[in-house]
Design a protein that fits this description.
248 residues; alpha+beta; 60s Ribosomal Protein L30, Chain: A; six-stranded mixed sheet; 5 helices; globular
Length: 248
C-alpha cells in the first residue's frame, strides 16, 4: 500500500493526482514541519519553502507535505482546476511526474477571516537524523469514501448535520481515513504527536467515543474553525508524528 520516493527519502501512500494519503520518512531521515506565523499566498509560500529547504542542505524533492488554506469551499470542478494549478510547481521541483504525487496535503477553508487567495499554513520536508524515531504526516481526510464517484455519491451521511449524522462522519474519518492510513505505515494513534480537526459544526458529543477512547487525543486536539475544501463536506482531520517543528 506504500511506495518509495527515493528522491525525497520518504515513502508514501498513493492516492489521487493532487496529493498522497500520507508520507513517512525513510530510516536515517526525519520529517521537519515548518509553520508560517501568518498565511502566505501560494506562490510566495512555495518560494519561501524552497529557500528554507535548500538552506537546510536538502533538495526540493525533500518536500513531503503541506497544509493550505483557501478562501472558500470549491465545487468539484473548481477543486480540480485548483489542483491542476497547484501541481505545476511540484512538477518543476521533480516531485510530481504527471500521474503520481507523493506529497501529503491538507487544504481547508477558514470560516472567519479567510485568505483572499489559496495560501500556505505549513509545509514539511525530510532531513537526515541520527535518531531512530520514526516520523510521518497523514494527509487531510474527510467523510468521503475513496472511489471514482462524485462527492455526492461518496459522502457519508450527505448533508446530514444531525448529531448522529455528524457522529458518523467523525467515526468514518477517524477510522477509515486516519487509522487505515497510519496502519499502512505500521503506525497508530499511540505514535502521533499532533492531531488536527477541521469543522464549523459542534462535534463535542462525538469526542469521547470516537476520538478519546480510541487514543486519538493522546497529544490533545487542535480544532480549526474551517471547512473541508469541497462543498458539502463537513468534517476533516489530519495527524502526524513529527519531533522537529518550527514557526517562521
Amino acid at each position: 500500500m506504500t511506495r518509495e520516493f527515493s528522491a525525497g527519502n520518504y515513502r508514501f501512500i498513493p492516492s489521487v493526482f493532487q496529493y498522497s494519503a500520507g508520507a513517512a520518512a525513510d530510516e536515517g531521515y526525519e520529517i521537519e514541519r515548518v509553520r508560517f506565523d501568518r498565511l502566505v499566498p501560494l506562490a510566495e509560500g512555495f518560494a519561501v519553502a524552497a529557500k528554507f529547504i535548500q538552506e537546510a542542505g536538502r533538495p526540493l524533492t525533500a518536500f513531503c507535505a503541506c497544509e493550505l488554506r483557501s478562501p472558500a469551499a470549491f465545487s468539484e470542478e473548481g477543486f480540480r482546476a485548483f489542483n491542476l494549478h497547484y501541481v505545476k510547481t511540484l512538477s518543476e521541483w521533480g516531485i510530481f511526474d504527471g500521474t503520481t504525487n507523493p506529497v501529503a496535503r491538507s487544504n481547508v477553508c477558514p470560516e472567519i477571516d479567510p485568505p483572499s487567495e489559496p495560501s500556505f499554513y505549513a509545509f514539511s520536508f525530510t532531513r537526515p537524523t541520527r535518531s531512530s524515531a520514526p516520523s510521518f504526516v497523514i494527509a487531510g481526510g474527510a467523510e468521503a469514501r475513496e472511489g471514482s464517484g462524485t462527492y455526492v455519491e461518496r459522502t457519508v451521511r450527505y448533508r446530514d448535520l444531525s448529531p448522529e449524522g455528524l457522529r458518523e462522519k467523525v467515526r468514518f474519518t477517524t477510522t477509515s481515513q486516519m487509522e487505515n492510513r497510519m496502519a499502512a505505515f505500521g503506525f497508530g494513534w499511540q505514535d502521533t504527536t499532533g492531531v488536527q480537526a477541521y469543522s464549523v459544526h459542534d462535534f463535542h458529543h462525538a469526542l469521547v467515543d470516537e476520538l478519546v477512547r480510541r487514543g486519538a487525543l493522546r497529544s490533545g486536539l487542535t480544532w480549526h474553525f474551517a471547512r473541508p475544501p469541497v462543498v458539502d463536506l463537513e468534517y476533516e482531520m489530519d495527524c502526524r508524528r513529527v519531533m522537529r517543528e518550527v514557526v517562521i
